[in-house]
């Protein structure tokens, strides 16, 4: 179910969905310029992967060639993908990536997954990001977007993929907060080195004094693969001795390559995930937002209302000097309740746990 609420300066939308093992609520808030540049995704797909594996049978008769046969292996894969995309320079890239990226990731898994064998999930996920960015390039949009994406395989293994400065955190009980992403800013040492090695500079904490992000979808002006660098800058003038080099996509000034954190879900310990764009985190510390959500659950507030309250709280702190409250805001909360308890049972579990921690009961 969903509903739309009115606000004097913004429109807020809350979307709720309940599934067997994970439930999620998405809250978003349109910015002041009447230009909602954020997008989100919540996709689930179950499919079978069938591969014919060549098997060599050694022939016991000496002098005869071994026989080759094909053995069919099949596995059922469940994939859940949650994402928040914060566009800049327009909404088109965020909207496109929110639809393209889940499909690209699932297609990569279908093609490259090997049943009954160890699989390189990180490589498949990165390939999905690269493929989506390649498709975005042909759209010729003059805008870009960050992405924070959670991919859950068979309700067990979780991968948090971050490109930009949107963020994912997890509540782990007893006030515990697990940071599952790190903002990609041009001034970060690793990002700064890559930018400079690709012929760029960082001024005013921006790539070439322009872009405040060091990783993003789109922004192809910062992804030139053919660059010129000085072979020996100490011995030749700046206009001589330039060497032409070609860069892979991972090494351009701005790259779409995600930073990926892998972990196994613990349904007893883990409580919920929060995904949000920087418009949310500009106003909340990670731990503060987790504590607020847990407190509201403990007093009977449902997640859809909590998302509204979070956005309202930010709007009440609008500051024209800092820019807080003027940015687009999207928050996605994923309840981790497993198949053994329902969504309602999850609410009761969090309430009981919080009350025990606070000494209320």
From TrEMBL:
Keywords: Hydrolase, Magnesium, Manganese, Metal-binding, Protein phosphatase. Its EC number is 3.1.3.16. This is protein-serine/threonine phosphatase. PROSITE patterns: PPM_1 (PS01032), PPM_2 (PS51746). GO terms for molecular function: metal ion binding; protein serine/threonine phosphatase activity. It comes from Saccharomycopsis crataegensis. It is an enzyme of class 3 (hydrolase). SUPFAM superfamilies: PP2C-like (SSF81606). CDD domains: PP2Cc. Its cofactor is Mn(2+). It holds the Pfam family PP2C. The keyword Manganese applies. Residues 23-336 form the PPM-type phosphatase domain. Belongs to the PP2C family.
């Amino acid at each position: 179910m969903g509903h739309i609420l009115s606000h004097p300066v913004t429109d807020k939308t809350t979307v709720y969905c309940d599934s067997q093992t994970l439930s999620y609520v998405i809250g978003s808030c349109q910015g002041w310029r009447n230009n909602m540049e954020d997008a989100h995704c919540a996709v689930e797909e179950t499919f079978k992967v069938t591969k014919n594996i060549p098997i060599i049978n050694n022939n016991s008769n000496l002098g005869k060639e071994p026989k080759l046969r094909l053995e069919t292996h099949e596995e059922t894969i469940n994939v859940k993908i949650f994402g928040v995309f914060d566009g800049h320079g327009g909404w088109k890239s965020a909207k496109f990536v929110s639809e393209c990226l889940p499909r690209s990731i699932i297609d990569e898994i279908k093609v490259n997954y090997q049943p009954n064998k160890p699989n390189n999930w990180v490589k498949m996920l990165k390939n999905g990001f690269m493929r989506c960015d390649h498709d975005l390039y042909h759209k010729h949009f003059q805008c870009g977007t960050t992405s924070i994406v959670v991919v859950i395989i068979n309700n067990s293994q979780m991968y948090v993929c971050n490109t930009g400065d949107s963020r994912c955190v997890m509540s782990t009980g007893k006030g515990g907060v697990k940071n599952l992403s790190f903002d990609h800013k041009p001034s970060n040492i690793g990002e700064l080195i890559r930018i400079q090695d690709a012929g760029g500079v960082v001024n005013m904490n921006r790539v070439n004094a322009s872009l405040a992000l060091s990783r993003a979808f789109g922004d192809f002006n910062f992804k030139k693969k053919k660059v010129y660098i000085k072979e020996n800058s100490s011995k030749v003038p700046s206009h001589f001795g330039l060497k032409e080099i070609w860069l892979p996509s991972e090494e351009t000034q701005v790259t779409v390559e995600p930073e990926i954190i892998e972990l196994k879900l613990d349904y007893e310990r883990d409580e919920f995930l929060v995904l949000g764009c920087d418009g949310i985190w500009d106003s909340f510390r990670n731990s503060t937002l987790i504590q607020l959500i847990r407190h509201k659950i403990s007093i009977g507030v449902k997640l859809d209302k909590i998302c509204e309250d979070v956005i309202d709280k930010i709007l009440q702190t609008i500051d024209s000097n800092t820019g807080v409250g003027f940015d687009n805001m999207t928050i996605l909360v994923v309840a981790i309740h497993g198949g053994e308890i329902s969504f309602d049972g999850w609410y009761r579990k969090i309430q009981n746990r919080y009350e025990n921690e606070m000494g209320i009961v």
